Amino acid sequence: MAEDAGLPLYEAYAIRYATRDGRRRDNFIGGDPHDGPMPMDYFCWLVVGGGRRFVIDCGFTAEVAAARNRTYLRNPVEALALFGIDAAEVEDVILTHLHYDHVGNFDRFARAQFHLQEPELAYATGKYMRHPFLSHAFEVEDVVGMVRLNFRGRVVFHAGDTELAPGLRLHLAGGHSAGLQFVSVHTARGWVVLASDVTHYYENMDSGRPFTTTFHVGDTLEGYAKLRAAAPSPDHIVPGHDPLVMQLYPPARPDLEGIAVRLDVSPKPRG
Q1: Domain extents for the chain?
Q2: pLDDT one-digit tens code per residue, 87-109
Q3: Cα 26 from Cα 214, distance rounded (Å)
Q4: Are 56 and 45 in contact (CB under 8 A)?
């Protein structure tokens, strides 16, 4: 499009750092009439271009993996070294929200500013956290860590949709968590939408059935429309936890098979 002329072309990667077994009933509000295996992958994302690099979410630790019975494949922050990136030198970390699997290694980024939607920290420290149904998705020490970083001037709050850098946009969606955001990135194949938990699986969005952990069902359903509006096609939307991502996109490099895939190239058809 003409208005996109001159924007940087970013490379975008998904780094798979953990997995867990699951059933279809675990992944849709109200369960699923055709219950069967439906495993979940855990990702962080890396965007590089325009002379900058952005880390999107930073996963959880081995200790949290053990406590929550997740299969830990690698520390996602250490996996950045596979791309020649030292976490201690990263300047921008985008946190899509504060659930345990998206913020757990924040302390490994010694210099970074953390980009967060303002409603998310208010939600994670407010009245709703007295309800285990909602608070179970947070680790208290992660939330307290963000509060401390805010007092040190290292949290950049956003209030709705914004352009963080030329060719990189943040979009407030809510739903799954009160301040959930997703990221759209200008690439050689057009705008790629990194959905994070706006849709955990392709099927959540395709069928209009939200994931079981949801703060606001209506905002979740509206979030699917926001994803579609930000993307040139459904093939430009990358869900936050779907193992299909590793199957549809090519490895970032041959030696990263099963570890990281490249998202700024077209995926295989979903069938």
Answers
A1: 2-262
A2: 999 999 999 999 999 999 999 99
A3: 12
A4: yes
Q: DSSP assignment of 182-199, as one string? A: EEEEEETTEEEEEEETTS
Q: Would you say how long the chain is, in residues?
A: 271
Report pLDDT digits (tens) over 32-87.
Answer: 988 899 999 999 999 999 999 999 999 999 999 999 999 999 999 999 999 999 99
- Tell me which long-range contacts 24-27 makes (C-beta under 8 A, separation of at least 24): 26/212, 27/200, 27/201, 27/203, 27/204, 27/211, 27/212
Residue 264 identity (one-letter amino acid): D
Architecture field, domain 2-262: 4-Layer Sandwich (3.60)
The DSSP symbol for 104 reads T
The Cβ-side half-sphere exposure at 42, using a 13 Å CA radius, reads: 25
| Dihedral angle sign, alpha carbons of residues 132, 137, 142, 143 | negative
The residues near 4 (Cβ < 8 Å, ≥ 6 apart) are 167, 186, 191
Write out pLDDT tens, residues 177-198.
999 999 999 999 999 999 999 9
In Å, what is the CA distance from 219 to each residue of 3, 49, 147, 176?
29, 32, 26, 8
